[in-house]
Amino acid sequence: MKVSVNIFTHKRAMLLDSLIESLIENFQNISYPINIIYHEDISHKRSYDILFQKYKNQIEVFNREKYKINKLYFIRPQNIMWYIKFSWMRSFYDNFKFLLDNILKNSNTEYTLLSTDDQIFYRKKNIHNKIFDILNTNPKLHSYRLNINEKFTDEHFIDDNYDIVKNNIGSEDKYLLWKP
């Protein structure tokens, strides 16, 4: 199964470079292009431009921009209260939500990975098909946090002979157990 990758970045081009390089090298479920939501800052623009040129065939860049609130937004009284109560948001209101909604809506995969630019894939990672099977049983109930566990030593994959079962230790516990 393929997974679309969406990365959020601001003022950290070197970290983003390490993440993209490690994704391309180690994440086997990747679906291209890698989507980058970028919050431009003039003092970091040149480093990001170089980076975006380096990966131009693997990434698609979306720039966050200031967004003007539509006057129709104020038809609802709750929105007026929000606008008054959170006045600091007026200067930071941008198109982030709309960009992300659009990326997810136009994705060519069923699954998505959301990441900040300070992550790295330091070894090979493949999301096992059994994980996708669990996610498909009830997408509103299940999600998967992409962590690499050092206990999986056979090339860092989940062995096909492993069973994946829900943890029954406590009613609040939603972790999965791996049983050989």
Structural key phrases:
single chain, 180 residues, alpha/beta, four-stranded parallel sheet, two-stranded antiparallel ribbon, 5 helices, 29% helix, 19% strand
Order of adjacent strands in the largest pleated sheet? 3-2-1-4
Shape call: globular
How would a crystallographer describe the biggest sheet? 4 strands, parallel
Kindly state the number of beta strands: 6
Describe what this molecule looks like in 3D.
With 180 residues, this protein is α/β, with parallel strands linked by helices. The chain is built from five helices and six strands; from the N terminus they run E-H-E-H-E-H-H-E-H-E-E. The strands form two sheets. The protein has a four-stranded parallel sheet with strand order 3-2-1-4, sandwiched between helices. It is globular. It starts with a strand and ends with a strand. The model is unreliable at 152-157 (pLDDT under 50).
Concise summary:
By secondary structure, the protein is an alpha/beta fold.
SSE layout:
Layout: E1 3-9, H1 13-26, E2 30-38, H2 45-54, E3 59-63, H3 77-85, H4 96-105, E4 111-116, H5 129-137, E5 163-166, E6 176-179
Parallel strand pairs: 1-2, 1-4, 2-3
Antiparallel strand pairs: 5-6
